[in-house]
C-alpha cells in the first residue's frame, strides 16, 4: 500500500498540473476572501475565518475531482491496472493507497491557508484573539469533507478510462451529496418532518455543524461511513471491470 501511496503523490507532483491545481485553489480563496467585495472578510468588520470555511467546499467541488480524476482512469487507459492486480496487494490496499495519497495532497493544499489565519489576526484590532477552538474544529470539518470528496472522486475514476468523464462524474456526485439533499429539503411539500431527514442525509448539514467548531461524534461517524461506502464501491467497480476484461 505504501508503494501505491508514494506513486500517487509522485504522479501528481511530477507534472505542472498538480501545482497549478493547488495554486488556483489558493488564488481563488485569496480573491474571494480579500478582494471581491461581496465575499471579502475585510468588509465584514469581524475577525474570523468563517468566509473561508463557507467558500472552500465550493472550490473543493472542482479541486478534488481534478486531483482524483486520473487515479484509476489512467491505470485503465495504460492497461497497468492488470499489472497492479498481479502484485502481492489486495484490492483494499490498492484503493486505500490511492485514497490516502490523494487525501495527503488535499491536506497539503490546505496548509498555506494558515497564512489567512495570520493575516486576519494581524488585521484585527489589538491583534484580537481569534476563536482558535472553533477554527480548529472548522479545519477538522474541512479535512473530513475533503476525505469524502476524495473517496467520491476515486470511485468516479474507477468507472471509466477517460479522466475528463471521471472529473465530470465526480463534480456532479459531490454537488448532489453536498448541496442536493439540502436543496430538496426546501421543497414545501416535504416540510414537517421529511425535510429534516433529507438534510441529515446530505454532507452540508454535517459539515456546517462541525464548521461551527462543535465536533459531534454523529457527524464524524457520518463522514467516515460515507468514505467507507465510496471506497467499498470503488473496490467493487475495479473487480467488476477486471473481470469483464479477463
UniProtKB/TrEMBL annotation:
InterPro entries: ABC-2_transporter_component, Motility-assoc_ABC_perm_GldF. Keywords: Cell membrane, Membrane, Transmembrane, Transmembrane helix. It is a multi-pass membrane protein. The chain crosses the membrane at residues 12-35, 55-73, 94-118, 138-156, 163-181, 220-238. The keyword Transmembrane applies. The keyword Transmembrane helix applies. Its main location: membrane. It holds the Pfam family ABC2_membrane_2. It is found in: Cell membrane. This is Gliding motility-associated ABC transporter permease subunit GldF. It comes from Chitinophaga nivalis. The lineage of its organism: Bacteria, Pseudomonadati, Bacteroidota, Chitinophagia, Chitinophagales.
Amino acid at each position: 500500500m505504501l508503494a501505491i501511496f508514494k506513486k500517487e503523490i509522485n504522479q501528481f507532483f511530477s507534472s505542472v498540473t498538480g501545482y497549478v491545481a493547488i495554486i488556483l485553489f489558493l488564488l481563488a480563496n485569496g480573491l474571494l476572501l480579500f478582494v471581491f467585495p461581496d465575499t471579502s472578510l475585510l468588509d465584514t468588520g469581524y475577525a474570523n475565518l468563517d468566509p473561508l470555511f463557507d467558500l472552500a467546499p465550493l472550490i473543493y467541488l472542482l479541486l478534488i475531482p481534478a486531483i482524483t480524476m486520473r487515479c484509476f482512469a489512467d491505470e485503465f487507459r495504460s492497461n497497468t491496472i492488470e499489472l497492479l492486480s498481479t502484485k502481492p496487494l489486495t484490492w483494499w490496499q490498492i484503493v486505500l493507497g490511492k485514497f490516502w495519497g490523494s487525501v495527503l495532497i488535499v491536506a497539503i493544499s490546505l496548509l498555506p491557508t494558515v497564512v489567512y489565519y495570520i493575516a486576519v489576526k494581524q488585521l484585527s484590532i489589538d491583534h484580537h484573539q481569534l476563536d482558535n477552538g472553533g477554527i480548529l474544529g472548522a479545519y477538522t470539518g474541512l479535512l473530513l469533507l475533503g476525505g469524502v470528496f476524495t473517496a467520491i472522486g476515486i470511485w468516479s475514476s474507477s468507472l471509466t478510462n477517460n479522466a475528463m468523464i471521471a472529473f465530470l462524474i465526480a463534480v456532479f456526485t459531490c454537488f448532489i451529496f453536498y448541496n442536493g439533499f439540502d436543496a430538496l429539503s426546501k421543497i414545501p411539500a416535504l416540510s414537517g418532518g421529511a425535510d429534516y431527514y433529507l438534510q441529515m442525509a446530505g454532507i452540508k448539514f454535517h459539515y456546517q455543524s462541525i464548521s461551527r467548531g462543535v465536533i459531534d461524534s454523529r457527524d464524524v461517524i457520518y463522514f467516515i461511513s460515507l468514505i467507507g461506502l465510496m471506497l467499498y464501491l470503488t473496490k467493487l467497480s475495479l473487480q467488476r471491470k477486471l473481470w469483464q476484461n479477463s
